[in-house]
Design goal:
heterodimer, A: about 220 residues, 7 helices, globular, B: about 190 residues, alpha/beta, Rossmann fold, eight-stranded mixed β-sheet, binds guanosine-5'-triphosphate, binds magnesium ion
C-alpha cells in the first residue's frame, strides 16, 4: 500500500516540473556555532540537549512573533530546499514556503497526511508510538516529513541528497518554532481570533451557496 | 470539527463516503466531480488497486466560495470498501464532519451493509465520536437492481430512527446530488465554532 503511495507522490513531484530552479549556491553554515562556547565544554560534549537549549533560546528571542509562512520560507533558504509545506494531520494545507508552482499542494497535503497516518499505524504494529520522521528518497527529488506537535506535519522537498543532514537539522529547528506558533494559536480563544465571523449570517450564506451548487434545476 | 485557519481565513469540512465494497462510493464521488463547475474543484486523486477498486481513498477539494471573508471548502473522500482494508477506512474517517453512507440495494448485500455501518460506528467511536452527533445521510444505491431491498430495512435493523435517507442509481447520476446536498446542508446547520 505504502509503496503505491510513494510512487504516486514521486509522480506528483515530477509531473509539475517547471522552469523555476530551486535556490542554489552554498548552504549556510550549520547552526552549531551558536552554541555558547563559554560553557567550557568540549566540542564532543555539545550534546543534543545543548543544541536543543540553544534552539529554545533563539525561539524566545526572535521567532515568537513570526508567521508560519516566514518560518517555512526561511527553512527553505537555510537548507537549500525547494519547498516547505505545513499541513494538518488530516490533510489541510496550513502554510507554504519556497517554490510551489510545480506541485499540486492540495493533493500533496491529502496524500502525505494519508501516508503519514498509514505509517503511524504501521509503527503501532511494530510496537512504536509513531515514526517521527519519514524520508522518501527519489532519483532527483526527496521528501523529508516530520511531525509537529503530533497534530501537524512539516514537509520539505529538496534535490541535493548530500544535504540531508542539514535538511533534517533545519527541519527540526523550524518544527520547534512552528510548534510554538501553533500552540499559541490554539491557546487564543475563538471570538478573539474571528471577531467578524457571525454564525447566523455565515450559515445563511453557506446554505445558499450549497443550494445553488447541488440543487437540481 | 472542521479545520479553521483564522489567519488564512479558511474553513474546511471533511466529507467521507463510507459503505461496503462495490456499493458505489467512487461512482458517487466521480459523478459529483464531473458535474461541478471546474472553477469550484481541484484535481481528483484516486488510489486504486489494479482492478479499479479503491485501495486507500479518492479525494477532491470543493470550494463553495468565500463567506464573510472565509474561503469555505469541502474536502471529499471515499474509503475503500473491501473488508480487508479496515485499518485504512478508520484512518480516512478521522476528523470527518459528515458521512454519506452508500448502501448497496442488492438483496444479497444486506448483511454487508449492516456490517459496514457497524464498523463505521465502531471506527467513529475509536476517535471518541458518537455517530449520533454526526451528520450522516444513508443512501440506498443501485435502485436499478432486481428486487432492491426495501427502504427502511437498514434503519430498522440498525435502529437508525430519523436518519436522512436518499435513494440513488449512482451510475446514472440519480440521487447523487441530492445525497451530497442533504449532507452538506446538515453539516453547515450543525456547525459550531
Ligand atoms: N447497477 C448499478 N451499478 C452501479 C451503481 N453504482 C455503481 N455501480 C457499479 O458498481 C461497481 C462498483 O462501483 P464503485 O463506485 O467502484 O464502488 P466502491 O464503493 O467505490 O467500491 P470500493 O472502492 O471497492 O469500496 C462499478 O462497476 C459501478 O459501475 C448503480 O447505481 N447501479
Ligand atoms: Mg471506491
Amino acid at each position: 500500500m505504502t509503496l503505491v503511495m510513494q510512487v504516486r507522490l514521486s509522480r506528483y513531484l515530477r509531473l509539475y516540473d517547471s522552469a523555476s530552479k530551486p535556490p542554489t549556491g552554498p548552504a549556510p553554515a550549520p547552526v552549531l556555532t551558536k552554541v555558547r562556547k563559554s560553557w567550557g565544554m568540549s566540542a564532543l560534549a555539545i550534546s543534543k540537549h545543548m543544541l536543543r537549549s540553544s534552539i529554545t533560546n533563539e525561539l524566545n528571542e526572535t521567532d515568537q512573533k513570526r508567521q508560519p509562512k516566514e518560518v517555512l520560507s526561511d527553512l527553505v533558504v537555510s537548507c537549500g530546499a525547494m519547498t516547505a509545506l505545513l499541513i494538518t494531520r488530516d490533510g489541510h494545507l496550513m502554510s507554504e514556503g519556497g517554490e510551489t508552482g510545480y506541485l499540486d499542494t492540495t493533493a500533496m497535503a491529502a496524500l502525505v497526511a494519508g501516508m503519514f497516518s498509514a505509517t503511524r499505524e504501521v509503527a503501532r504494529i511494530v510496537g512504536e508510538q509513531q515514526f517521527s520522521i519519514l524520508l522518501q528518497q527519489g532519483e532527483k527529488r526527496h521528501i523529508h516529513i516530520s511531525l509537529v506537535l503530533g497534530s501537524a506535519m512539516l514537509i520539505v522537498v529538496f534535490e541535493d541528497y548530500q544535504r540531508i543532514g542539514l535538511v533534517r537539522h533545519q527541519a527540526r529547528k523550524a518544527g520547534l518554532t512552528l510548534a510554538e506558533l501553533l500552540r499559541k494559536e490554539t491557546e487564543m480563544t475563538k471570538p478573539e481570533l474571528a471577531p467578524e465571523l457571525s454564525m447566523p449570517a455565515f450559515k445563511e450564506y453557506a446554505l445558499d451557496l450549497i443550494d445553488r451548487i447541488f440543487k437540481p434545476n | 470539527m472542521p479545520y479553521i485557519s483564522y489567519h488564512d481565513k479558511v474553513i474546511a469540512f471533511k466529507i467521507v463516503y463510507y459503505g461496503p465494497g462495490l456499493s458505489g462510493k467512487t461512482t458517487n464521488l466521480t459523478y459529483i466531480f464531473n458535474h461541478l463547475p471546474e472553477e469550484l474543484r481541484g484535481d481528483m486523486l484516486t488510489l486504486n488497486t489494479s482492478d479499479e477498486r479503491t485501495l486507500f481513498f479518492d479525494f477532491f477539494p470543493l470550494d463553495i466560495g468565500r463567506i464573510e471573508g472565509y474561503a469555505v471548502r469541502f474536502n471529499m473522500y471515499t474509503v475503500p470498501g473491501q473488508v480487508y482494508y479496515e485499518a485504512s477506512r478508520r484512518l480516512i474517517l478521522d476528523g470527518a464532519d459528515g458521512v454519506a453512507f452508500v448502501a448497496d440495494s442488492q438483496p444479497f448485500r444486506l448483511e454487508e451493509n449492516i456490517d459496514s455501518f457497524q464498523s463505521m460506528q465502531k471506527n467513529l467511536g475509536h476517535y471518541g465520536v458518537d455517530w449520533k452527533g454526526l451528520p450522516i445521510v444513508l443512501q440506498y444505491n443501485k435502485r436499478d437492481c432486481p428486487n432492491p431491498i426495501r427502504i427502511g430495512t437498514l434503519e430498522q435493523r440498525l435502529d437508525l430512527d430519523g436518519i436522512p435517507v436518499t435513494d440513488a442509481v449512482a451510475i446514472q447520476g440519480l440521487g447523487v446530488m441530492e445525497t451530497i446536498h442533504t449532507l452538506t446542508r446538515d453539516v453547515i446547520v450543525r456547525f459550531k465554532l
